[in-house]
Amino acid sequence: MAQDSHLDMPQQLRELTDRNVVQARCAYIQFLDAMAQARNMWLGAMPSNEMTSGMKVIHQLAILFAKQNGETCFAFASELVNARNLQDVVAIQSRYAQTQMHAYALQAQGLGRLMAEASHGMQPKS
């Protein structure tokens, strides 16, 4: 295999793939918005106390992380569509993996901290 092998993808196929990524992104955003509305309705029906306010914050952050991760994934897919050779694909994949692993670690820390705070607030007061 040549060192700089060119990815022979017809331009029409690249454009079709790019349009599909854009459509998938729109559908994903609509899904997340619907999920957020359902969550808001569900949490709105619950009595307001420390537990539900902590849950609201955790849910909001989880939805924010899902949106961020989705956007990053769609940007990754768009970048892959435009890769010109195998080296581009490997570089794009490596950069995406490194970036996301860092983002997931930060997100897990943030959610863990909020969950600890929420559970601390749920403990009976002496």
Account of the 3D structure:
Helix content is 83%, strand content 0%. With 126 residues, the chain is mainly alpha-helical. It has one domain. The radius of gyration is 21 Å and the shape is elongated.
Beta-strand portion reads under 5%
Q: Could you give the order of the helices and strands?
A: HHH
Quickly give the structural class: mainly alpha
Largest sheet: none
Mean of all residue-level pLDDT scores: 85
The coarse silhouette is elongated
Number of strands: 0
Which residue ranges are poorly predicted, with pLDDT under 50 across at least 5 consecutive positions? none
The helix fraction, in percent, is: over 70%
Number of helices: 3
N-to-C span? 71 Å
Q: Work out the count of structural domains.
A: 1
Question: Radius of gyration in whole Å, from Cα?
Answer: 21 Å
List the helices and strands and how they pair.
Elements: H1 11-45, H2 50-81, H3 86-122
Helix pairs in contact: 1-2, 2-3
List keywords for this structure.
single chain; 126 residues; mainly alpha; 3 helices; elongated
What is this entry, summarized?
This protein is mainly α and 126 residues long. It is 83% helix and 0% strand.
